[in-house]
Amino acid sequence: MAGEPIRIVIVEDNKVFREALELLLGLRSDLEVVASVADGEDAVPAVEKHRPHVVLMDYRLPGVDGIEATRALRSAYPAIAVVALTASANREEMRALR
Fold it and tell me: pLDDT of 5-28, one tens digit each?
């Protein structure tokens, strides 16, 4: 991975926040947003197609939520790093993210 940018997939249902993340992360030469999807159901196919190093995962998503999508990703791609995004989480929700 030395020298190549860190490849990122964003999973976030809020379009404005998702686009802001893409813009901000795109300003860095050591990061590359390779895909951006709006729901958990599209997370695994996006990772399958784009092979990122990291997934930025919204905790609260419609349909397949961030916990379910993360479990599916970790099952299919155990080495992938998943970073949870949320405005707030209680202790139980934080434990579910582990």
Answer: 999 999 999 999 999 999 999 999
Quick check: 9 and 53 in contact, CB under 8 A? no
- Residue 76: both structure tokens together: 């299919």
Do β-strands 31-37 and 6-11 pair in parallel, antiparallel, or remain unpaired? parallel
Task: Tell whether the torsion through CA atoms of 77, 20, 15 and 87 is positive or negative.
Answer: positive
- What is d(CA 77, CA 75) in angstroms, rounded to the nearest whole number? 6
Q: What is the DSSP letter of 40?
A: G
Which run of H or E residues covers position 32?
strand 31-37
The secondary structure element, H or E, covering residue 22 is: helix 15-26
CA distance 94 to 92: 5
